[in-house]
């Protein structure tokens, strides 16, 4: 074996060991790398009232009720839903049917008290006329693919 | 591979870049002018984001090329460590600051887009955090290659960092699929084709090609300078 070949194999060997190590670390950290929980995950895990976490999903159509600074709405992952209350300014992209992420904790009454609400943008980009045409022709499925 | 071997000789590289660089610079400048006009004036606003979508024409190309640049850095690291190519170390020194700059542009434009659209400049989700790590990996490369009095030792240490750090590149790319993140999933390179309307997609692809040209031109230019600097140092030592 020439020194070049030896160096090449040494390099490939150490890199594959490193890749396996990285994969194992990422796999074991899986729960902590998740940015938000969906309503059905919350129902499953039942976090205590003191625990802060992020809740993500789609805003249920027709669920938004504004009362001065206070906004009440429901977040769904199409399997379960959770009511949310938030006091403050909602971001530009916040609307019903859109993906949002709220940070806060569960209240004693089972309502999620949000301290911060972020809008999640989907991966679709198009001019306004195209969006309008799609909606009119009924080939529009808003919300599909925005959250997982 | 044959071209890589051919260019591995610094003197030959010098002749190659002297022929290519002037034309490449002109083409890049034209591509930037056309691309900026197309992206900032001609392209339509987005149905949700309005005019803010135009930030994407800088953000996505800068971030993509920043990741591609790190792959280049890793390939250069391997060719230095395994084949001892004399040019690889010089080119790696030329690449790292350019890559770091592209990464910084990606971070800053993303942050400026996030404030109006998401409602925050920054969150610690998997995509944003792994991309910030890319910036530090570039800075680490620059620091390591200057950390030794003996330039060769610095080159080797930095090459090892480049190879180890390359693991982060697929993590950045797939972070939006593996974990749920605030950052939206891929729009261009995904199964089922792009989910961007052609009137927005084409200027975006143009800008990506433009940023790639700009990156190559800057790296060639800086590699030339590195070669000159090494020669000058060698001459000074000899004198």
CATH class of the largest domain in chain A: Mainly Beta
Output the radius of gyration of chain A.
Answer: 22 Å
Proportion of β residues of chain B? under 5%
Task: Please identify, by name, the CATH architecture of the largest domain in chain A.
Answer: Beta Barrel
Main sheet of chain A: which strands, in order across?
1-3-4-6-5
- Which structural class fits the helix and strand makeup of chain B? mainly alpha
Number of helices of chain B: 8
Largest sheet of chain A: 5 strands, mixed, barrel
Uncertain segments of chain B: none
| Estimated share of beta-strand residues of chain A | 25-35%
The dominant shape of chain B is globular
What is the residue-averaged pLDDT of chain B?
Answer: 91
**How many strands, which pairing sense, and closed or not: the largest β-sheet of chain B?**
none
Cα distance spanning the termini of chain B: 37 Å
Sequence of secondary-structure elements of chain B: HHHHHHHH
What is the fold-level CATH name, i.e. the topology of the largest domain in chain A?
Answer: OB fold (Dihydrolipoamide Acetyltransferase, E2P)
